[in-house]
Amino acid sequence: EDQVTQSPEALRLQEGESSSLNCSYTVSGLRGLFWYRQDPGKGPEFLFTLYSAGEEKEKERLKATLTKKESFLHITAPKPEDSATYLCAVRTGGSYIPTFGRGTSLIVHP
Amino acid sequence: EAGVAQSPRYKIIEKRQSVAFWCNPISGHATLYWYQQILGQGPKLLIQFQNNGVVDDSQLPKDRFSAERLKGVDSTLKIQPAKLEDSAVYLCASSLAGGDTEAFFGQGTRLTVV
User: pLDDT tens for residues B72-103?
Assistant: First the structure.
């Protein structure tokens, strides 16, 4: 059975304190790994799609990387407005069903 | 560009009652998804439509849940009868195509079953 595990469950940072969120997966035939940001009371907002090991994508203070077993979302010099829950999801070949992790709740203190 | 619209935003019903949620996707998006997100968990796909046809509904509890997509545009998700464990946020999303394309989510409907 496909599994997606995100860690840590919660993370508190000071403004400017860089860190990384982890998404590990055990799936066969990965077709894509997706990162989303979700603010309280809102739907997830798409951030990145990664397709193959070694791929990296960046957007402002966020950088997503992918290996054969996990993905990292690096947050450089975070600001309070980066506070949100970050979700990852994987889609495998032959299945239309994306499997989401439980998310990492990030709080950035000023 | 208008986003995905959902209504209502909140709904409180008693168990065994019926409830319906409505979704209007982004114009031109062929693929529409309904997700269930229980508090503290990631979204779980219930059903995926491509235009007005069902692509996957393997995780939809068909004894009580039903969904349709009228004319390949708007969609409704119905629960009849509701159970306590159906309390969750129901999210609608749409994308230009299925597969790996980016999905845009609505704000969701928060359902509380008492």
Answer: 899 999 999 999 999 999 999 999 876 666 88
* Chain B residues 29-58 with a CB less than 8 Å from chain A: 40-45, 48, 55-56, 58
CA atoms in the 13 A half-sphere facing the CB of A110: 2
Q: In the β-sheet with A19-26, what is the strand arrangement from edge to edge?
A: A3-7, A19-26, A70-75, A62-66, A56-59
Encode pLDDT of A73-103 as tens digits.
999 999 999 999 999 999 887 666 788 999 9
Instruction: Indicate if the alpha-carbon torsion angle A51, A56, A59, A64 is positive or negative.
Output: positive
Would the CB atoms of B99 and A31 count as touching at under 8 Å?
yes
Cβ atoms B34, B54 nearer than 8 A: no
- B4 in contact with A at a CB cutoff of 8 Å? yes
